[in-house]
Amino acid sequence: MTADGGNWDYIVIGAGSAGAVIANRLSADPRHSVLLLEAGPARNFWEAIPIGYSRLIDNPETNWCYLAEAESGTNGRRLNVPRGRLLGGTSSINGHAFVRGQRQDFDTWAQLGNVGWSYADVLPMYQRMENTSSGSDAYRGRGGPLRITRPPPHEPIFAKMIEAAGQIGIAHNPDYNEAEQDGIAVSEVTIASGRRQSTAHCYLHTIRNRANLRIETGALARAVLLEGSRCVGVRYEVGGEVREVRAAREVVVCGGAINSPQLLELSGIGQPERLRDLGIEVRHAMPGVGENLRDHYAAHTRWTIDSRGYSFNERARGLPLVGEVLKYLLLRRGLLVMAGAPLRAFVRSREGLASPDILLGLVPLSYEFGADGSIRPSRQSGVTLYAHPIRPESHGSVHAASADPRQPPAIRFNFLSAAADRSLAVAAVRRARQVMTAPAMASLGMTEIAPGSAVQSDEDILDWVRNTGQTTYHPVGTCKMGVDDMAVVDPRLRVRGINGLRVADASIMPTITSGNTNAPSIMIGEKAADMILEDFAAWV
After folding, report:
1. Which end of the chain has less neighbouring CB within 10 Å, N or C?
2. Distance from CA of residue 10 to its chain's centroid?
3. Nearest to 250 by CA among 504, 8, 510
4. How many angstroms separate the CA atoms of 40 and 37, rounded?
């Protein structure tokens, strides 16, 4: 082991959706020295190209490539759990959707005792980070670092879907990130000028030369360093060399819902019996570390289309694909700037609900999952409409499986373990079918191929979901924020019982937000930076 010789005011572990934001905001004041550690590389060629996520989603250079444990909710399958492993983290490999969540998501957090996290409290954070022309000034941000766009609904399949949704009572909502989430809309995306707007691009690349900021890539965190009840630094590894650095003020863990609890456990913070079984010295007993894992578990209904011009499968191979590449190079348009699900609808499973409880996401091509979990376009033209509950009650865990930080943790989702999730999973499939069989879709010559017309009963639909469902890559909650005994961090994101240590990423969410989780993760980074700076101002 060597001493790096570095003494920093703040050390941020993980340069992902939240960590990049925190490093930017803290280093904006030259009085603060900041070290940002990232296990992966600085960038990858495919990161900038929006559809490049198809090349990054199973690339171990840029993705941790985790696998969940087999469980009954997946009928014994081990699901892929992609997590970004480069500057920008998962914001550099995701499907680009920008979804804030519903007002009630954040008001629920506040009602659980998390003062300062209501919708009214987090709205200014969203506005500060956004740079968008959508919506009204009362709700949306105009001058932030994160460029957000909504592509025009020029694709024929989009117009058909919006019409079909209207025919079954799902209205068109131009901006689901404003006051109300209900309805169908073209997705807001972190794509602008044909380029991915990751937090690496928007928050880091323009500030890399700040004298008080050092960004170190290829740096695998092994543990946070504790002296008594205070965190004083970080032990990490670069190229096989183990180094230690010290933080005069704080260490901020931003590894995400999978890596953050693993790092705490490797540092001796967690459930004592579990740590002892791994040969890790118990430094601080904390039962909630790694618990409360939540994610969205989606059924992927698939449909063939006879009419030409409605499916992207026609453009994904041969000469049409060459044309799409040229279109991107010359105009920054076309297939290569497509988000993962360019159309989405937030719907209610039944009348009488206060807000939507189901998400439908359209992918304008038909694809198949390989036996190894890989995704590839089908040869036959079609579309995919995935569907899932947006506030699942099932929860699982993430725990270190070894004292070696290079070994992946054990991820257990426990999908469909809650009765409410099982009934909503069935309702979500039925709502997807209603949209796809509405009168507006009849002229396209559509045929349902998954789950298929033979799958009709609730039991059969649920069985199909267990056999084919996939995570939507939104893990949260494993270092949850709160005031109860299972909370890992308090409402100011300080690890309870340890001074000088915070966690700031999706792992702090006490409950999952209604939709994709990248936007809330960036917001958490903004709010965490404010809290850290406020505490510094009070200290001096």
Report:
1. C
2. 25
3. 8
4. 9
Instruction: Give the sign of the dihedral formed by CA 494, CA 496, CA 501, CA 503.
Output: negative
**Which helix (H) or strand (E) is 159 found in, with range?**
helix 156-167
- Asked if 521 and 493 count as a contact pair (C-beta separation under 8 A), the reply is no
3-state SS, residue 222:
strand
DSSP-derived letter for residue 50 is G
**From CA 29, how far away is CA 180, in angstroms rounded?**
37
Residue 376 β-bridge partners: 368
Over residues 446-455, the pLDDT tens digits come to 999 999 999 9
Are the C-beta atoms of 117 and 109 separated by less than 8 Å? Answer: yes
Q: How far apart are CA 211 and CA 247, in angstroms?
A: 17
Residue 53 DSSP class: H
pLDDT tens-digit series, residues 18-46: 999 999 999 999 999 999 999 999 999 99
pLDDT at 318 over 50: yes
Alpha helices, DSSP H, located in 389-517: 419-436, 458-468
What is the C-alpha separation between 62 and 481, in angstroms, rounded? 28
Residue 243 pairs in a beta bridge with 2, 236
State yes or no: is 474 an active-site residue: yes
Q: How far is CA 478 from CA 31, 160, 296, in A?
A: 33, 40, 15
Cα separation, 507 vs 289, whole angstroms = 10
CA gap 228, 115 in Å, rounded: 28
Using CA atoms, how far apart are residues 217 and 23, in angstroms rounded to an integer?
A: 14
HEC per residue, 74-99:
HCCCCCEECCECCCCHHHHCCCCECC
- Options 201, 284, 399, 474, the catalytic residue: 474
